[in-house]
Amino acid sequence: LQTLSDQSADLSGLVVVLVRPRNPLNIGAAARAMSNFGVRQLRLVNPYAVAFREARSAVGASDLLKKAQEYENVADAVADCGLVFGTTAVRNRTLHHPVHQLNAETGELVRQKLANGNVALLFGSEKIGLTNDDFSHCHWLLNIPTQARHISMNLGQAVAVCLYELSRAGTEEPASKSETPVTSGEMEKITQGLLEALHASGYVKPGNDAMCEKKVRELVIRFGLDAMDAKVLLGMVRQIVWKLRKD
Amino acid sequence: LQTLSDQSADLSGLVVVLVRPRNPLNIGAAARAMSNFGVRQLRLVNPYAVAFREARSAVGASDLLKKAQEYENVADAVADCGLVFGTTAVRNRTLHHPVHQLNAETGELVRQKLANGNVALLFGSEKIGLTNDDFSHCHWLLNIPTQARHISMNLGQAVAVCLYELSRAGTEEPASKSETPVTSGEMEKITQGLLEALHASGYVKPGNDAMCEKKVRELVIRFGLDAMDAKVLLGMVRQIVWKLRKD
Fold this sequence. Notes:
Two copies of one chain form a homodimer.
Chain A: H1 4-7, E1 14-19, H2 24-37, E2 41-45, H3 49-57, H4 63-66, E3 69-71, H5 74-77, E4 81-88, E5 99-101, H6 104-114, E6 118-123, H7 132-135, E7 140-143, H8 155-166, H9 184-200, H10 209-222, H11 227-246
Parallel strand pairs in A: 1-2, 1-6, 2-3, 4-6, 4-7, 5-7
């Protein structure tokens, strides 16, 4: 079985920057989503000190969170990044910044840029998001398409959604189906068993045999059984027929 | 500027089912993500009572959360749904359920199914996820592609990521499907009828009830019945049960 690490994108150059986060749960949630999607570099700009301390000392805090770096300003936090995205709930924040919607194309674009260097993804504080000053450090804005009336996402959830999209594997695997198909002969045994039960129970009316047989056969075909299911179903039907005959 | 409501998919038939959630913050987070992505129907199966109360009474709790419905079991919670997904972190949970990866194709598939009826998305409890018994009510499993070493996502973040993918604006044409899908409630009637016949015929051995019930339910789900086939099959099963009871 192919493991996910084989498929998923290399996000080692992706940097998540939380600007002035205030809630330790959100800091922890951001770190957890990073672990889920294989992103390692977490940076915090002026976090609320108590919140950062609590998040780091929480039970089960990840290594990633413990290694998170703290910066006094956005400029320093993104200094080594070739492309800086500012996330925003608003779709038309400033005329100066191209706004990219989070979607498959944007994800692909980011993965291309990652081949050339670090890419930063900035998330603002829970209350006010990123400021115009923060945006001045951004090349592009990134908008998660949400409902017009409920645009503002929870910080941890916004991080999860962005990283899910960016980590998307280029080519997706179809769901595998490994079942052994059932033979027509086996299906016919089920059909005949079921027909016998229907006869014994009075479901089949006189003169209606042929029609009923056709109906049952087509139904059993539509069940789309695999070999194992067919065996189980045949066992059930035979037991019922045995009981009906016996009485 | 195009607003999102113009582009985004119609998810009015999508039902989010939280099974045994224990953390009020996660319940609130799930509801918030639903608001973000335009999903309205929240159902909870056996939530931890204190958690549900706290989530509902939290400042800023959404209307959606206040209208959330509570159920005692999964069967009732999904009774009106034609397709039931169980979310799982594990990629190969059981051989009996097709596992779909969350991706663009799966999203498109769900949107097609939504054109024909309700679709349920089940999320398990924070600690243990969904149980095998929960899975027996599911048609398909849905896996969010995460890193092999950090597969388990936070509940609120998992909900957000799934709804982000499902709400993705579909430029794709909906495939036409004329069949009316069968609801889980109708399938459960077949399951219960077949179980009664199996009891009456001696197929079910003492102490084997629960296992057998699960086996039958999964088998009936795999039949992939449409509404008409389900009606026919239910009629057959009921006639057989009537006869078995009578003798």
